[in-house]
Amino acid sequence: MGFSLCLVVLLSTLCLIRPQNAAAHEVMPTIGDLTVTDGRLTLDLRLNVEAFVAGIDLDGMDDTDASDQSAAYDRLRAMDETELVPKVQAFAKEWITQIVVMSDGPLALDVANIVIPEVGEQDLPRSSHLTLVGQIPRGASNLTLTWPKGAGNLVLRQQGVDEPFTGYVEAGTTTPAIAIDGGVVQTWTEVFVAYVPVGFDHIIPKGLDHILFVLGLFFLSVRLGPLLWQISAFTLAHTVTLGLGALGWINVPASIVEPLIAASIVYVAVENILADTLHKWRIVVIFGFGLLHGLGFAAVLEEVGLPAGQFIPALIGFNIGVELGQLSVIAGAFLAVGFWFRNKPWYRERISVPASVFIALIGAFWFVERVI
């Protein structure tokens, strides 16, 4: 029973972690739209500006509540535009010196505009706009941009040209040379490779609700057959709605999708408690839940954006990243408990059922939280 107690304590700590849903997508990549017109560079950044002003190191961060500056962030989040804009101006004046744009030498950037949305639900992040401008030297043909450390990741999208550049820029790294007039596009492979970590990151560490759902599949049985059938149904389903959602053919509000995702966690966990074998209807139900999770993944891609000319490799890369994340969860669970205890007569009683009970409780808590 000692191991069961440890497992209960471990899963209980998950109750303190906010799930990756519409109320917890607080640390998303900054979206940067880059335009050059008549030698004038404009970089429009759509970002969670309160997190930047609060001094939160966004590298590897998935929730502002995990930061020591979370209280400062909450205070800023409660401010209206009149109060917040001066603070953003003071912050940006120094911070933009860390954004290094090179085009036949370094460019001096200035703040041209700050747009702060109205204060709404304070559990939801605001997408503010910080617009920077600079002057491109005459005759320059390309540029590079270095994104500062601590700023999280940047999705950089070139606008207003044929064959624009679109790239996923990690903090502390520099883009390849971007042709000012367009025409230099990342290869299929480069786009594919760039979007794999985006999908993986949405599962580990940010996709706690998806992690618990996959663990719910795992705890029914650690035998390969039942697990393979469940994962295959789930993968096929979320791949379908991820693609349709990314194309804009399906659009279901997060207020509907997110509570249902929480309900899916409860379902698989409760069935683990009541049944110890894989029934045919569970495959059908898991397929349905996979459709819901795919819509959740599509919402992430909507935030990040997909390159117009490289939609397919980006979508495939993101989906493979999601699959690698899910397989990592399964592998971790197997190494933690399956490998050692799956053949023990008390495995179901001491491991599978207690784990499923707490997964169900957490899912139920999230369901109520998301509905309310």
Summarize this entry quickly:
With 372 residues, the protein is of the alpha+beta class. The chain has helices at 2-12, 49-53, 70-77, 81-95, 188-203, 208-218, 224-246, 254-274, 280-304, 311-341, 347-371; strands spanning 30-37, 40-47, 100-102, 110-115, 128-135, 142-146, 154-158, 166-169, 178-179. The two termini are 37 Å apart.
Task: List the defining traits of the structure above.
single chain; 372 residues; six-stranded mixed beta sheet; three-stranded antiparallel beta sheet; 9 strands; disordered N terminus
Describe this structure in words.
Helix 1 (about 1-10) packs parallel to helix 11 (about 345-370) and helix 6 crosses helix 10. This protein has about 375 residues and is an alpha+beta fold. The model is unreliable at about 1-25 (pLDDT under 50). The protein has 11 helices and 9 strands.
